[in-house]
Amino acid sequence: GRLLQKHGCDVTYFPWNATSGEIIDFNPEGIMLSNGPGDPKDCHESIDAIKNLYQTDIPIFGICLGHQLMALASGFDTFKLRYGHRGVNHPVRNELTGNCFITSQNHSYSVIPDSIDEKIAKVSYININDSSIEGLEYCNKDIFTVQFHPEGAPGPMDTVFLFRKF
Question: What is the pTM of this model?
Answer without folding.
Answer: 0.90
